[in-house]
Design goal:
The complex is a heterodimer. Chain A is mostly helical. Chain A has 8 helices and no strands. In chain A, α3 crosses α7 and α7 packs antiparallel against α8. Chain A is globular. In chain B, β7, α6 and β8 form a beta-alpha-beta unit. In chain B, α3 crosses α4, α3 packs parallel to α5 and α4 packs across α5. Classes of the chains: A mainly alpha, B alpha/beta. Chains A and B meet through α1 and α4 of A and β6 and α3 of B.
Chain lengths: 222, 250
C-alpha cells in the first residue's frame, strides 16, 4: 500500500510540476482572496486583526477545493480511471498517494498565505509550537476529506458544481478548529488551542481511515 | 490445456439492457482471436468483461483460471486493455506515463524504455507531454504502456485506429510476437483484411451473442485456479499467488 501511495503521490506531484496549475492559478487565487479581504476590511484595522486567522483558513479551504478538483479531474480524462482499475495499484494506496500530493501542495500554499497575512494584514505570527502542528493536522484533514469527497463526486456528471456543495460543509469543523487554534497561538495562549488541535487530529485520522477503507468502492463506482 | 479465456452463458446487463446475451467462448493460450461485428454488437463490452471492468450478470467466466465474479481484481492485474481511450495523463510526458504504469504493474522500468523504442517513441518524442501528441502518437504511447505492463492477455479494441502504415505494421508484428510467446490476444477491429491476417480464428459478434464456428472446450468440472502454462494436475498453488502478474514478450 505504501509503495503504491509513494508512486501515486510522485506521479501527482510530477503532474503539478509539468502543468504548474497550483503555481500559476491556485497560488495567485489564494493571494487574490487575501487582497480582496484587505480591501474590504482595511478601513477597520481592528476587525482585520481579529479575523486574520479565519481569513487565512477560509483562503486555505477555497484553495483546497481547487486542488482537490484538479487532483480528481486528472483521473477522469481519457480512460485513466479504467487504467487505474487495471493497474494493480491498491485503492488505499491510490487514496493515500493522492491525499499526500494534495497535502504537499496545500502546505506550500499555506506558507505563501502566511507570508501574505504578515505583509498585507500586519499579522504577528507566534506560538509556533501550536501553529505548526495545527497547520499539519488541518492540512491532512483537508486533503483526506477532499480526496474522499472528490472521488465520491467524480462519478457524477455535475461533479464540478456538486463538489463544493459536498465538501465545504464537511470541512467546516476544520475551518472552525484551525481558526480557533490559530487565534490561541497568535494571542500567546497555546494551551487554549490544544483541544482544537485534538479535534483536528481526530478529523484527519478519521477521514484518512475512512478513505483507506472505502476508496476502492468509490473507484469502482466513479 | 485450459482456455486462457473461458465464458459460458455469459450475460452482461448494462443499465438493464443485455449488452451480452449468453456468450459461449473459449480462447486458448497464445491464440489471437478476432471479434468481428457491426457497431453496437457487443465487442467492446465483451473485451471489458474479459478485463473484469464490467460485471458478469449471469453465466460463468474465467480468465487465466481466475473467476471473473470473485477474482476480478486479480484478473485486472494480468490483462491489458487498449480501448477507445488511451488511459494516459495529458500533462505528463510519454516517458512519465509509460514508466508510471509499468511501475504500477510491478514491471521493470527498463521495459518501459524498450516498449517506447519498439513503438517508435524514442528520442525527442519521449519527453513530449501527451497533450501535445497527435492521435496516432497517443495510440502508440498507449500501446507502449500495454507492452511495458507485460499482461498475459491483450484485449485490443480497434488497435489500428489513428495509426499510420508503420504504426499498423508495428502493432501487427507485436501481436504476432506476443502470441508466439504465449500471450492470448482478443482483438476487435473493423479493419478486417489486416486483422484477419494476424488472427488465428475469427468469431462473429452480433446482438450481444457470439457465433463461434469452433465449439468451446468443456469447462473444468471444478475451478482449477491455475494459470495458463501450469498443469492443473500438479500441486501448484492457486493462480493469484503463483501466476506471475506480468508476462514476458520477447
Amino acid at each position: 500500500m505504501f509503495r503504491d501511495a509513494t508512486l501515486v503521490a510522485g506521479k501527482d506531484l510530477r503532474l503539478e510540476l509539468r502543468s504548474r496549475v497550483t503555481a500559476n492559478q491556485v497560488a495567485p487565487f489564494a493571494l487574490l482572496i487575501l487582497i480582496l479581504f484587505a480591501f474590504a476590511l482595511d478601513p477597520d484595522r481592528v476587525v482585520l486583526d481579529r479575523v486574520t486567522p479565519g481569513l487565512f483558513w477560509v483562503a486555505t479551504v477555497l484553495c483546497a477545493l481547487l486542488a482537490v478538483q484538479r487532483a480528481c479531474s486528472v483521473e477522469h480524462a481519457d480512460g485513466v480511471l479504467d487504467a487505474l482499475r487495471l493497474s494493480g495499484l491498491e485503492p488505499a494506496g491510490i487514496f493515500l498517494g493522492k491525499a499526500a500530493a494534495v497535502a504537499v501542495q496545500l502546505l506550500v500554499l499555506e506558507v505563501l498565505l502566511g507570508l501574505g497575512v504578515v505583509v498585507l494584514y500586519g499579522a504577528r505570527l507566534g506560538g509556533w509550537l501550536l501553529l505548526v502542528p495545527t497547520a499539519l493536522a488541518a492540512t491532512v484533514g483537508l486533503a483526506a476529506a477532499g480526496c474522499l469527497y472528490g472521488m465520491l463526486a467524480a462519478g457524477l456528471r455535475v461533479r464540478e458544481t456538486l463538489l463544493p456543495l459536498l465538501l465545504l460543509p464537511a470541512l467546516a469543523p476544520v475551518l472552525v478548529a484551525a481558526t480557533q487554534a490559530f487565534e490561541a497561538a497568535f494571542q500567546g495562549v497555546a494551551g487554549e488551542g490544544l483541544r482544537w488541535l485534538g479535534l483536528l487530529t481526530v478529523f484527519a485520522a478519521g477521514y484518512t481511515a475512512l478513505g483507506i477503507g472505502v476508496f476502492g468502492v468509490l473507484l469502482e463506482d466513479a | 490445456m485450459e482456455a486462457a479465456v473461458h465464458l459460458r452463458g455469459a450475460v452482461c446487463l448494462l443499465g438493464g439492457f443485455p449488452a451480452l446475451a449468453g456468450v459461449d467462448l473459449a480462447v486458448a493460450p497464445g491464440e489471437v482471436l478476432l471479434l468481428q461485428g457491426p457497431n453496437g454488437a457487443g465487442k467492446t463490452t465483451l473485451l471489458r468483461l474479459c478485463a473484469g471492468l464490467v460485471p458478469l450478470s449471469a453465466g460463468t467466466g474465467r480468465v487465466l483460471g481466475l473467476d471473473l465474479r470473485t477474482e476480478a481484481r486479480a484478473v485486472r492485474r494480468r490483462v491489458g486493455l487498449l480501448g477507445h481511450t488511451t488511459g494516459l495523463y495529458e500533462d505528463l510526458t510519454v516517458a512519465d506515463n509509460v514508466r508510471f504504469w509499468a511501475r504500477a504493474a510491478g514491471a521493470p522500468t527498463e521495459d518501459a524504455s524498450a516498449a517506447m523504442a519498439r513503438l517508435g517513441l524514442d528520442g525527442r518524442l519521449r519527453d513530449v507531454t501527451v497533450g501535445r501528441l497527435s492521435a496516432g502518437q497517443r495510440r502508440r504511447a498507449a500501446f507502449a504502456v500495454l507492452l511495458a505492463r507485460r499482461p498475459h492477455v491483450w484485449l485490443l479494441d480497434e488497435p489500428h485506429a489513428a495509426l499510420d502504415q508503420d504504426g499498423r505494421d508495428a502493432v501487427d508484428h507485436l501481436v504476432r510476437q506476443a502470441a508466439a510467446s504465449g500471450v492470448t490476444v482478443l482483438l476487435a477491429s473493423h479493419e478486417l483484411d489486416r486483422a484477419v491476417a494476424i488472427a488465428d480464428r475469427v468469431v462473429d459478434v452480433a446482438g450481444g451473442a457470439v457465433s463461434d464456428p469452433e465449439p468451446a472446450p468443456a469447462a473444468p468440472a471444478e475451478p482449477s485456479g491455475t494459470a495458463p502454462g501450469t498443469d492443473p494436475g500438479t500441486d501448484a498453488d492457486p493462480a493469484p499467488e503463483t501466476a506471475p502478474e506480468t508476462a514476458r514478450v520477447p
